[in-house]
């Protein structure tokens, strides 16, 4: 009897818990600032920046650079491709979990 691969529907980009946390945050918020993501996920600047760059290069995040007063402000929002990929990933997780029951 053939067995279905339980991880076949998962997107490797979301394997990392920080990228998963970023996507979870931006999918429910119109946009989030770098500092808000850093505080929410309790990560260092360098660590967050690396994972944000990975998500941006995959086409899953849009970056907006601007100013609030005299301070730079970088915000991130999800792209249509990111939204689809993340929903597909969540569907793959759900399918995997249901298959384990």
From TrEMBL:
Q: What is the lineage of its organism?
A: Bacteria, Pseudomonadati, Bacteroidota, Chitinophagia, Chitinophagales
Q: Which InterPro entries match?
A: ArsR-like_HTH, WH-like_DNA-bd_sf, WH_DNA-bd_dom, WH_DNA-bd_sf
Q: Which CDD domains match?
A: HTH_ARSR
Listed GO biological process terms:
regulation of DNA-templated transcription
Q: Which residues form the Winged helix DNA-binding domain?
A: 18-97
Cross-referenced Pfam families, in alphabetical order? HTH_34
Which SUPFAM superfamilies does the protein's record reference?
Answer: Winged helix' DNA-binding domain (SSF46785)
Q: What is this protein called?
A: Transcriptional regulator
- Residue spans making up a coiled coil are none
